[in-house]
Amino acid sequence: MQIHTLLAMASVATAHFHLVSPPSRGFNADTMATFPCGSLSQMTDRTKIPLSGSIPIDLKLGHTQTALTVLLGLGNDPGTNYNITLHPTFGVQGAGEFCLADVEYNAKILGVDVVNGMNATLQVQSNGDPQGGLYACADVQFFSNATIDKSSCSNDTKLQAVQFTGDSAKRTANVSTASGSAQGSSSSSKENGGRALELASWGVFGAALMGAFALM
């Protein structure tokens, strides 16, 4: 195999994203575009999370511009039913470590009363390159005594989060471009605009964004 072919393959693998926390099912660059979880099997050791509150989601991004959506499916095996939006679609400019420090969930967001021992699967979607989506999943279990360590979740200083609005926020990342427009559309600009914010204030931005979408 020629060296330029090897370099191209390495570039594709590093351009995907990794779900670091909660611990994901794994990473396979060749199957990551397969819905819903990149063709990876469920974890036998689920990450325990509190019955309500918030959890950090730590990612390593390989693209310099990415659209992301955070979804959840309830049950032992959600299949393709990831119908709960934990964080609507937004953009990130820059590659490296990216942290959503406080992804909120409660009975109102989930649509059910959470009980001790209930299982669920978290799905993170990114836009594909150039079409479709990339998927990473983490299997979790709601547990009354669970505690979450948020200290290791951090952001590379050069990253910027971009709040999508209108249709750009409503469509999931697997049908979105990195800039927020619909895949296959003639325009490469963000639909309805987007607002770039430094990640130093991501906690404030995240809380405001979640509140705004809760009112929609």
UniProtKB/TrEMBL annotation:
Residues 1-15 form the signal peptide. Keywords: Cell membrane, Glycoprotein, GPI-anchor, Lipoprotein, Membrane, Signal. Its main location: membrane. It holds the Pfam family BIM1-like_dom. Residues 15-157 form the Copper acquisition factor BIM1-like domain. It comes from Penicillium cosmopolitanum. It is a lipid-anchor; GPI-anchor. This is GPI anchored protein. InterPro entries: BIM1-like, BIM1-like_dom. CDD domains: LPMO_auxiliary-like. GO terms for cellular component: plasma membrane; side of membrane. It is found in: Cell membrane.
